[in-house]
Amino acid sequence: MQATRALVLVSSDCESMERGAQLVYERLQQEIRAAGLQDEVVVSLLGDVGRHDALPMVIVYPEAVIYGPVRPDDVPFLVEEHLLKGRIAAGLQASTRELSGRIAWLSARQGTLPAERRIVLERAGLIDPEDIEDYILHDGYEALGKALTTMTPAQVIDEISRSGLRGRGGAGFPTGTKWRFVASAKGNHKYVICNADESEPGTFKDRLVLEGDPHSIVEAMAIAGYAVGANEGYVYVRGEYGLALERLSRAIDQARQMGFLGRGIFGSDFDFDIHIHVGAGAYICGEETALIESIEGKRGEPRSRPPYPTTHGLWGKPTLVNNVETLANVPPIIRNGAAWYRQFGTKSSPGTKVYTILGAVNVTGLIEVPMGITLREVIAIYGKGMRNGAAFKLAQTGGSSGSIIPASLQDTPMDFDSYARAGVSLGSGALLICDEDTCVVDLAKVLLNFFRVESCGKCTPCRIGTQRAHQILSTVAEGTAEMDDLKHLLALADGMADYSNCGLGQTAAVPIRDIMKHFRAEVEAHISLRLCPTGVCPMSGRQVMAA
Amino acid sequence: MSSTARLDEKVYTAVQQAIQRHGREREGLIPILSEVNRALGYLSPEALSEISRQMRVPKSQVFSVASFYRMLSTKPRGRHVIQFCESAPCHVVGGREVWQALQDELGLQSGETSADGRWTLVTTSCLGVCAVGPVVIVDNDIYGNVNRAQLPQILARYE
Q: Which of A10, A120, A538, B88 is least enclosed by beta carbons within 10 angstroms?
């Protein structure tokens, strides 16, 4: 890296790109050239910066001034004032109200988000995701080097086991145990798959890892390959994630050029390479056996299990499937050790969790916090309270693996075991916060519609159960249901939970059971009183009483 | 040359190029279908037959894969495809009203294509841009924080 006078960073997460970050980036390059500053000033794109209130943002170092939202037309003024005249471009600064006058990006992150602890997203927003050298400068590929030159595969697995890392895709299975299953499976051809088919409603954490720090996934997959004895990896990227795909492809090419992928990595006898498979739009492909079918060029229908992919996966070979967020935890654990990792989070769920906060709060967006924080804290600190001072009614934790968390559980620590004891689930990390204007019948109807549309159709309980449950909920919302319909609904839920082939059908029962358990009176009002207490449901089929 | 012969040529070229890039192994089927879908706008019966012939995969299997994935279409589509996210995060922040307004504005329901071939309207599950819901996607352009008043302006950008 050459010495430069100033570094100009442009936020380039999806949201910024959508708001013209690319134009701002190009205009900056033009204006800096026009001012003859191209040898003194470096312009670079970076990922998610951790705040979303003024995108696209431009951050100028060494002063660490944050500008935003910046439009292309603001650029000449910004360049002239800040880079030529050396003073802050008045009027363009992002709001500094939370920053008590300090404007370094570090305080931007720490000031707005006090208890954040970034491990998975440690570099996202800090480095140029398209430049491998920037990654290497920030400890990149150090963990891979350490694993290959100083550790045996068994030691790598031990370290991951001792760290207590658990799968972040939703199920929370111990990662080290899964690695050990694959390592000890018979066969000399094994695969590592990174599940980047993120499609749980409300979840976009994996997208931001891939957009902001794609090399961390390349590095983690190589470490996983070394540990389990695989020489080939696949990343299954969701078809809709164009920017993530572009950045990941570039990262893989760069890693090959630099020798972090390919033959004899770090002078060892370990070979590893990564292929990308782009999805074509199917939620079910996030289920690991459906994902494997899809890579093989088939319909994404889940297989019957056992046998599990750890012994019979891709093309029948032992296969390790890990979620993006899970893998992103691997390099920091190898670099810093299991004991370091265990200081974050809770005893049974160490580390951090990335959440997306959505819905009726003042600030929506992405946070990474230690496991064990409570929903009340998330809403108060990161969501900056409920929008319009409304009362918190419930949170929905996203897609097939999540559940509905009523207000009475807002002080339950958010970790795998505390939530399991309370009969709810963390899901994939989406936190859809709902206030009292949300109708639980309407919400369950939308969730069942999702399952109905995304059911692959392979097994009957799910294919027909989700359709029928959606129909019944629709009649409740229209005011034409009878009390007996609720019995049918619960019986359907039992059928789907007990007899579906995979997680999608099994958890399609969850919203039904949750609303009947926590909000029964509200549901029954739609039937006995023919009215929707929140006024959301159309109740269009109800009979008007004769005057 | 008749128009069908020209059409066949276009189909043949698209299939040929996709297969050259992704190979004849079964693993390449989905990438090939995606690429041909992009090139032709949809997967016509001729395109599916040609893929089946060249890859030596039964037509039934090619069709079963093509009809499974949301981003692949076996029906012709309008010049512009509008996708509306119908998942819960967009729904609870006003998506319901925007969806109704969008249908009224276009005179279309989900899955329909306008008579003039300008629009195809579809609903989709979560696209992962929930921080700016409700979300409408026209072709590859993402519009976030959409309200009903903005719809005419957004639609006017497309011919």
A: A538
